Amino acid sequence: MAVAAAAANSSAAAAGRLLLIAPHGSYRTAPFIEAAAARGAEVLIASESRHSLVSAYARGLRVDFEDPGGALDALIAEARIRPFTAIIGTDDSSTELASRACSVLGLRHNPPEAVRLARRKDLARVRLAERGVAVPRHRRLDLDLPLAPQICDIDYPCVLKPVALAASRGVIRADDSDALLAAVARISRILSGVRDAEERRYILVEQFIPGIEVAVEGLLTDGRLQVLAIFDKPDPLDGPFFEETYYITPTRLGPDSQSLLWRRLDEACRAYGLREGPIHAECRINAHGVWILEVAARTIGGLCGRLLRFGTGHSLEQIVLAHALGDVVEPRMQERGAGVLMIPIPRAGILRRVEGVLAAGRVPGIEDVVIDVREGYELVPLPEGSSYLGFIFAHAPGPAEAEAALRAAHACLNIVVAPLWKGAAAGLAAG
Asked: Residue 285 belongs to what H/E stretch?
């Protein structure tokens, strides 16, 4: 047994030691842990969690994401005890810290300023415009100043966004000045819980871009962009809120549109200064070309990475981890259709139950139905909410068949939601 343990330790040492910087409860943590285990790498999780019941978090390194300097010092101190081979930030809240730690430790990384640009929607818009990349007309509203002079010449329809929140949280379309003022008030309430003073102070408002929307998963190596997958979003995303539902791949875009999409994303990555690691991009395509909505320096959100099965047998997280460790992997997407439905929250309230899950799972082409929210939990829809009820996954001969399977499975579900009586809930809490 001692010999076996020594062999296991030697294998882990050869595979490297990975630092995973992840907020508690991140969907991305488990896939990266599985990817590390597949290659025998050791994993340490750095998180803000102090009382986690999840062993990987509880055994990890506790850091305060709201104190970047202190968090960086803690990571460097740990690296001096036992070096890391690679550091990965799983979510928007951790990618900048990961890049700073990699910069200090000499590991493969993006410049921290590039990661900050990718996370901050307002700064990203300015940089893209400076570098000649097509962006919608935009401006930043300062909530500390009177609004009237800031909005007197805005063109409608427009879209208002917090400068640093993710998952479409707080993103609202306004078709006139009354709707804009209502959206500002609503977003201001959402931002009241944001700790960063600058991110709490500003709202980005920009021209609404009509057209079809796609998501792109890519990988940068020494500044060279490789597109791993393009996801079609078949449902129109015209507002007033922008809840994402269906992701379908491979894309049904033609070769010319795909080529133009790659060129725009390459321009955006160069404008930001991104050079290494995964990107997840959202784009609109219309008669005027490709418009960058965002380019995040991380992998796709939620459990959606499970869709991507590459011909080499690697998962998305395995490819990202191999890149971070300096290995060369040539991913090739399988040609069969695949899709995921991020199950939308139908209305606010308390989840009682989700009926029809077994029936949904029996729909031909459906691979899995995952309900993440437990009974008794409060459901908060967009724009205030930032999570989904769960996910449905499909694989089929082609993208159209995958989409049809997802729609049939979703139709099987009956989501039972009870009203939430705030006054009663507050009284119970006080008692």
From this structure: strand 277-286
